[in-house]
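hey can u check if this looks right to u? its 203 residues, i copy pasted from the old doc so theres a chance i mangled smth
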Amino acid sequence: MTWNHELKYYYVDCINKLTKMEAIIAKFSVEDYHKMIEAGLLIYRDVELINGLILEMSPEGTEHTYIGETLADYFRRLTQGIAWVREARPITLTQSEPEPDIAIVRLPHSLYRSHHPYPEDIYLLIEISHSTLKFDTSEKRNTYAAANIQDYWVVDVNNKQLIIYRSPINGLYKNETRLSLDSQVSPLAFPDLNIIVNEIFNR
């Protein structure tokens, strides 16, 4: 009887200690992630790897899809022969493998037969943000800054503005610019290309 009484308090003490412990999150490397994909563990799952965590991607609404498709097509015409435009395809960073809505990367296209684009291959990343603005301007922003992505744009669908992040230093972007519809901007890699913000939303 005494033993049971002591055991009861032992269990209670253990439970109290467990409730005070911080949650331990298992993180995966890019190599782990690739092995899961090859093994078919993530088949039919719409996911991406962000800083070691496998995250479900939000479904696209019609406006998100429309803007993404038309903007990607616009950039294809502007950069034909000088860059390759990828839509919702992976890029490989040190601890992440996100799938930005648009990635403008260096040629030749055959480079990506054996691997996804690395940071040094990337001219410009663009995320179309409708319901994901907070994530794209915090976690995604910091992920891209840490990878030294020089030019990152967020198309803010709800507020009809373009947010531009540049000059990554020590894992953070030094420069943030918010452009309204009547503004123009050029990608860092292609200063001769003038993008009118209004055309992003009203093409």
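The domain at 59-201 is CATH 3.90.1570.10 (tt1808, chain A).
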